[in-house]
């Protein structure tokens, strides 16, 4: 059985009288240790698919199992625990808190009560070092470049050592040099064993990954 199994997934959104069929029957299997890109044009259903894989958006029908766990058969509370224990997320718009330093932003997911404040600081610093920002831990987001902010977001996503790292258009706001650096970083993390599932509309990102799944109008093509 694959690490992530997606079977016959559909997602419909209703907007007033209209129904948008964002996903129309998607089947995918993702193995442990893979680096997958999900490619498609704007509006093809990529973010919807990723949010459902990540346990953040209930499907209309179909099933997602991760490590044998049927995600949406869990109640909300257990689903939230499962997410926190297994998944890391990186988004295009960083979602950094502007009045917290890079290190404090990276500490945010470390809610585990058993960790002391010092241990949290240490873990966050290690994650920042991993993405090449050990020397900028005390900077606020607006004192960092776009590429650096994205790397802080990646540090925050890996600080809990997640089984699966999800990224939605992580290079969407970056210039070419910063995009390449961020993709190379994902590649390195994957070489160290991290499973990565990335959504993108940029074909250049695919050269870094093991496998590309193309999606159009809510279907795998
Ligand atoms: N919350 C929502 N409510 C209504 N329609 C949505 C919502 N989210 C996405 N959609 C629609 O679903 C389709 C797929 O969107 P999305 O998954 O964001 O695609 P992509 O990430 O590939 O651009 C689009 O037509 C979009 O307008
Ligand atoms: Mg999207």
UniProtKB/TrEMBL annotation:
It comes from the Bacteria. Transmembrane segments: none annotated. GO terms for molecular function: ATP binding; ATP hydrolysis activity; transmembrane transporter activity. GO terms for cellular component: membrane protein complex; plasma membrane. SMART domains: AAA. InterPro entries: AAA+_ATPase, ABC_transporter-like_ATP-bd, ABC_transpr_LolD-like, MacB-like_ATP-bd, P-loop_NTPase. CDD domains: ABC_MJ0796_LolCDE_FtsE. Residues 4-221 form the ABC transporter domain. Keywords: ATP-binding, Nucleotide-binding, Transport. Belongs to the ABC transporter superfamily. Macrolide exporter (TC 3.A.1.122) family. This is ABC transporter, ATP-binding protein. It comes from Geobacter metallireducens (strain ATCC 53774 / DSM 7210 / GS-15).
